[in-house]
Amino acid sequence: MKKSTLNQRLLLILILATGFASGLGAQNVDSVFKVAREAAFERKDYTTAIRLSKEVLCVSPGYTDVITFLGRLYTWNKQPDSARLYFNEALRQQPDSENAFAGLADMEYWAGNYGPALVVAGNGLKVFPRSETLLLRKAQVLYAQKEYAAAIPVLDTLLQVHRKNSEARRLAVQIQDHIAKNAIGVRYDYIHFDQQFPDPWHLAAIDYTRHTKAGAFTARVNYANRFAAGGLQYELESYPRFSKTFYGYLNMGYSDNKVVFPKWKAGASLFANLPRAFEAELGVRYLYFNRDVFMYTLYAGKYYNSFLFGARTFLTPQTSSITQTYSVMARYYWGGPNDYVGVLLGSGLSPDDVRSNVQLNSGYKMRNYNGEINARFSVQQLNIVTANFSLLNQEYLPGQKGNQLQFGLGYIRRF
């Protein structure tokens, strides 16, 4: 037996011995309750936790926190009838117990009883209209029942009050994919150079996206006018889902004008939604002008309160060295997944940036530093507007530096 477990049991024996000898006081009752919680949370020993909790109730039958805890224990022990009995008793003794409402709603939801779960969550929200737990559970039940339109205002309310809830934000994305399986997007970018090129660059794009159970699939046409020439690029892109944890990214593009676009481009990544609101990506990018360019990327991100923080690198193996590109970003969400403002700071060029990846064809290893402000916001759920402004300071020839200013606008209509 582990020393910590032995000490806990000796403590329990002492508490019970002294408590029942003189009547368990409030302090001793709380001590036994603490040992019961440790048994459940640290060792998953629900049988012991149930026994200790019942011993507490023998002395203090009105201890509603313990009654609710017993409901949770029986839920985890897969005994829904007993769990329901204790949750209802807790609500009978304390009709305004948020924990009891949440526990009963959780139990019914996990048991697949969506109707009763929705009723319990609704009754709880009448008493606690801003409850984060009850709002999320109600939205999850509505999602499970495929009542997507009804879930949207629940998530809107939740994210207005509890902006840091990343689970609600992810659920909102999934619901949007169900209620609006199609999207058409347009985008325009204007780039001005103060030194490097005499004429500005103009870029435009139009795309169509279809959301399916397997993931999102996009067809896109890009147009660019730069280097006093115009050309088109054709792209296919997808984000296949593999599980709740993993999804992917696949991209392929072709252009018959390798002056303004790489002739071929491709990309593949594996993404992971990790515990504690972390996310990560491992991938590879390929560009072909007159030679092959392979770039490998690593990304890590973390949701914290209403923010997303992330860092990315692109590594390009070369004959004598490895070219490195770095960037860090932060976003602030004020609503759903399509309502945020962000900043990005970096060094180097990204192969994913259609505005500048053509410059990776330069024979000179360019040093540059860039910063960007971007925003995305939704209008009546199905209309999404994007905007960004960036500044890039670049050494385009040895000892010669110039600035390029970029401004972009985009619009997406989901239907």
From TrEMBL:
Source organism superkingdom: Bacteria
Keywords, comma-separated and alphabetical: Signal, TPR repeat
InterPro entries in the record: Beta-barrel_YaiO (IPR030887), TPR-like_helical_dom_sf (IPR011990), TPR_rpt (IPR019734)
Domain YaiO beta-barrel as annotated: residue spans: 181-353
Cleavable signal peptide: 1-26
Name this protein carries in UniProt: YaiO family outer membrane beta-barrel protein
Organism for this UniProt entry: Niabella yanshanensis
TPR repeats: 64-97
